[in-house]
Amino acid sequence: LHVLGERLAPDIALAALMAAWLPAAGRLLARGRYAVATVALLLPLVLAAPQLTPPLYGDEPFHLTLMDSMVRDHDLDVANNLDLEERPQNALYAPGWPLFHSPGLSFLLLPGYVVAGRTGALVFLALMGGALSALLARRARDLGVGESRVRLLALAGAITYPLATFAGQIWPELPGALAVAAVLVLAARTRGGRLGAVAVAITAALIKTRLALLVFPVAAAAWLRRKRLLGAGALAGAVAVVMAAGWLAMGHPFGPYRRLHHLWPSDPVLAVKVGGGLIFDAAGGLLFTAPLWVFAIFGMAALWRRGGPGERALLLGCGATVA
Question: In angstroms, rounded to a whole number, what is the distance separating the alpha carbons of residues 274 and 259?
Fold first, then answer.
């Protein structure tokens, strides 16, 4: 019974959390408090994550190491923070400078890390998840989606990718989604939105360079409606900032391994394979990890018709990312 309890305890706790959260979320969403409803679910999850799992593979160990270096050593050189004897997997990040990943995400989460370490950084991600839900609800209303459907979208979105999936992991997916939602809202504004869209695009690209393929087309769509020459200059300056930061921090804007020629599609069949893997891959395909997003793919045509220039630019950016 003891072993059975250990194995089932997280599942029982999660079931209890969902049983308490669902009716509360329904009342909060009915009052238009989308951010509060989302954070109410994500906050317990991110507080539990450090107690249940060590830092996972990929971006998270790197950013924790970098934030530790910034707090303890007040620098970005992680060479003396890798602790290869205890964590031999950190050899991936050697020699420590230039950096393996962009430091943008570490800078973004650093205030939370200073206060409460990994837990504090995850709490920051949970708050970003709340902001993402609120921005998506706002943009959906602007596009004429009914309030009941907006609430259903927020409820479903909170329990799937990228909110519940990535709020407990220090990866760029959730901040990237927040940047996309923010730039869509800003691009639709008639006053003050264009400069804000460029600023968000720069921030997103500094977190992960490939996010530029999603956010810069939306920012460009906002500028091209008027003042095209000024917009071209603003976008060129934004690209220059991102490229310069990449060269300074990583030795190249695309990191240690990728180069410009990797961005150009070399084989149309490869793009089809990438799309198929994105949906059907047994290890992490959307069909198995976030099936609601598979249904959302079939709504892209409707989004193209009903959306604004920002949404159409985003869909083009999605195509460029897959290609």
Answer: 19
